[in-house]
Amino acid sequence: MAEANEFAGMLIVFGRFVPGLRFVVGAIMGLTRYTYWRFLVWGSIGSVSWAAFTCLSSYLVGSVIDDRPAVSMLVSIVITTALLAALYQPLKRGWQDQAAPSPPT
After folding, report:
1. Contact, 31 vs 8, CB < 8 A?
2. What's the rounded mean pLDDT across residues 68-86?
3. pLDDT beyond 60 at 1
4. For the chain, which residues make up each domain, given as ranges?
5. What secondary structure does DSSP assign to the chain, as a single string?
């Protein structure tokens, strides 16, 4: 359970960016009795980040591709997926490094 608490903040923040994961992360944090105030802080950080990213990317993509809504939606999806993949890779490496057994001394 210590590992879950260690990564809970990042899980809550990144969970805000993925539609189905938002609910699942909240339910898991409740079931594991994660501290409400910590969840509130991380949830607020994730929500503000998600709102800022969504508004900014929508404005930028919409201003460049203003007459083709389907293309602008596709571009937004690709940008969001690429950004989440780029942020996930360093986290995954960190998790794998911590999960690797240390050599005996």
Report:
1. no
2. 80
3. no
4. 2-93
5. -HHHHHHHHHHHHHHTTSHHHHHHHHHHHHHTT--HHHHHHHHHHHHHHHHHHHHHHHHHHHHHS-S-HHHHHHHHHHHHHHHHHHHHHHHHHHHHHHHSPPPP-
Look up residue 50 and give its amino acid: W
Q: Average pLDDT of 34-62?
A: 87
Phi (first) and psi of residue 90, to 5 degrees: -65, -35
Dig out the tokens for 68 from the structure. Answer: 């083709």
Token pair in block for residue 78:
């690709």
**What is the rounded CA–CA span in Å between residue 88 and residue 38?**
22
